[in-house]
Amino acid sequence: MNGVLHCIIKNEGAYWSARCLDFTLYAVGETKAEAEDKLISEIQEYLYEAIEGKDKEFAAQLLLRRAPFQDWLKYYVISFLQNCKSFSTLFGQSFQTAVPHGPYHHA
User: Fold this and answer.
1) Average pLDDT for consecutive 10-residue bins of the chain (107 residues)?
2) Where along the chain do its domains lie?
């Protein structure tokens, strides 16, 4: 593990869901911040139990418990799209607009 955890957070309509793909943990909250905070707390508790707590005899299995492939694929697609969006500031942005109806005047 390189010190970075891979997580996805998503608005599910009435609530937010947050997932940690590295340990297959899941948390929900009424707000994005609440879901993220709950997931971070869950990760901290999970790591404590796996490394120092009652589950330390199973640490090797618990610390290598990964989410399924489709969740990782979704994570990398989301990351790619977010990076593309940040590149738009380098290249400019495209947009569409309706053709204004006349009469036309030179400004």
Assistant:
1) 83 94 95 95 92 91 93 91 73 58 57
2) 7-87
Three-class secondary structure assignment of the chain = CCCCCCEEEEECCCCEEEEECCCCEEEEECCHHHHHHHHHHHHHHHHHHHHCCCCHHHHHHHCCCCCCHHHHHHHHHHHHHHHHHHHHHHHCCCCCCCCCCCCCCCC
Give the pTM: 0.75
Nearest CA to 5 out of 56, 61, 75 is that of 75
